[in-house]
Every structure is written in C-alpha cells, then in structure tokens.
UniProtKB/TrEMBL annotation:
InterPro entries: N_methyl_site, Pilin-like. It comes from Paludibacterium denitrificans. It comes from the Bacteria. This is Prepilin-type N-terminal cleavage/methylation domain-containing protein. Keywords: Membrane, Transmembrane, Transmembrane helix. The chain crosses the membrane at residues 12-35.
Length: 42
C-alpha cells in the first residue's frame, strides 16, 4: 500500500507552506530587531 511515496522532485504544498511560515517569522523578527535598534540609537 503506497500512499504517494513517489520520488517527487520539488516541494509539496505543505513543505512550501511551512517554509513560507518560517521565513515570515524570521523576517518579522529581523524587522522588529532592526526597528528596535533604529529607535534605540537615535
């Protein structure tokens, strides 16, 4: 019983969603740190 165990090259939709979510979280943290340091060193 094989459930979609093909050797797929590329990303599945779930992998893309996880990658986008993680990158958005990282981007948000970087922007927050940048704005915080910009506000501090004025």
């Amino acid at each position: 019983m094989r459930l979609a165990m093909k050797n797929e090259r590329g990303f599945t939709l779930i992998e893309l969603m996880i990658a986008m979510t993680l990158s958005l979280i990282i981007l948000g943290a970087v922007v927050a740190a940048y704005l915080n340091s910009k506000r501090t060193y004025r």
